[in-house]
Design goal:
6-stranded mixed β-sheet, alpha+beta, Cytidine Deaminase, domain 2, globular
């Protein structure tokens, strides 16, 4: 657990602190708090779930890595399951600013990686920028999504009154819905390598309704944990989420360092019209130049 996170946890009463330390110090912590633990924290603090989310964004904020702006943002989303998912902003010196990851995006892809189907609420330390609002419009729950800030609660449509999203491009599926891109049919024939198969599974679940160009990444760490990332497109095209970005964000929210990566695999179909390979390789090189990106093309 990061020292800054521990300092924040220390402000709580002993029973709450003990519960939070148990969650965040767990060896398999994966950037989330399950519904049962959420309920226990709500009871201990005698607050609502939305108030708890607003408390927790300041813990999420400590996971931010913003060496360019020095502006830390934290986000917590509540899934329909009742689980809470954490996200924080990331910046990468030496790379284009287009590679910047926003906390709201990080929390959403974290929920998506855990196969959450809908989110109901997102709490942040600052009001979401227009890019994040556009990213949220891709969600099936966009029309009902609540945004909780320290001093006010908005609906997403309150702050995006004239939106452009998938409906304008006649797309019926939505981000975080269950996806099966038919890439697993012969997947076992490509490899018996677990990391490759995890990347293949991520590609199969990726969201690419505009280009039909599926892509998935899997990262192996030195302690044999695997983190995956799925490509996630957006109606605004150039704010689509690279699968490497999603994977390293998920790793970051699990108390691990980018230097802990020991292997990295990206899987894409051979006939993709849009490829994530070059940008994924560039991003991997920035966070860990000692690891080469292994490329697997499938039919």
């Amino acid at each position: 657990m990061a020292l800054q996170c521990e300092d924040i946890i220390n402000i709580y009463p002993f029973d709450v602190k003990e519960k939070l330390v148990k969650i965040f110090n767990s060896s398999d912590f994966a950037g989330m708090i399950v519904h049962d633990d959420v309920g226990e924290l709500v009871e201990l603090l005698e607050i609502s779930e939305e108030q708890l989310m607003q408390e927790l964004v300041y813990i999420a904020q400590q996971y931010a890595i913003p060496p360019i702006s020095n502006f830390r943002v934290g986000a917590v989303v509540r899934g329909e399951s009742g689980n809470f998912y954490f996200g924080a902003n990331l910046e990468f010196p030496g790379e284009t600013l287009a590679f910047t990851l926003h906390a709201e995006q990080a929390a959403i892809v974290n929920a998506m990686t855990h196969d959450e189907r809908k989110i109901t609420t997102i709490a942040t330390t600052y009001i979401p920028c227009c890019l994040c609002r556009q990213f949220m419009l891709e969600l099936e729950s966009a029309e009902r999504l609540k945004i909780v800030l320290p001093d006010i609660v908005y609906s997403l449509l309150n702050i995006v009154p004239h939106s452009f999203g998938p409906v304008d491009l006649k797309i019926n599926v939505r981000l975080m819905q269950k996806m099966d891109n038919s890439l697993l049919k012969n997947g076992i024939n490509y490899s018996n390598d677990e990391l490759v198969l995890e990347a293949l599974s991520a590609a199969n679940k990726s969201y690419a309704p505009y280009s039909k160009s599926y892509s998935g990444v899997a990262l192996l760490t030195k302690d044999d944990r695997i983190f995956t990332g799925r490509y996630a497109e957006n109606a605004a095209f150039n704010i689509s989420m690279n699968p490497m970005m999603a994977a390293i964000s998920n790793l970051n929210m699990s108390n691990l360092n980018f230097k802990d990566i020991s292997r990295a695999v990206i899987v894409e179909p051979k006939n993709n019209t849009v490829s994530q390979i070059k940008s994924a390789g560039n991003l991997l090189y920035v966070v860990n130049p000692n690891v080469d990106l292994e490329i697997v093309k499938v039919n």
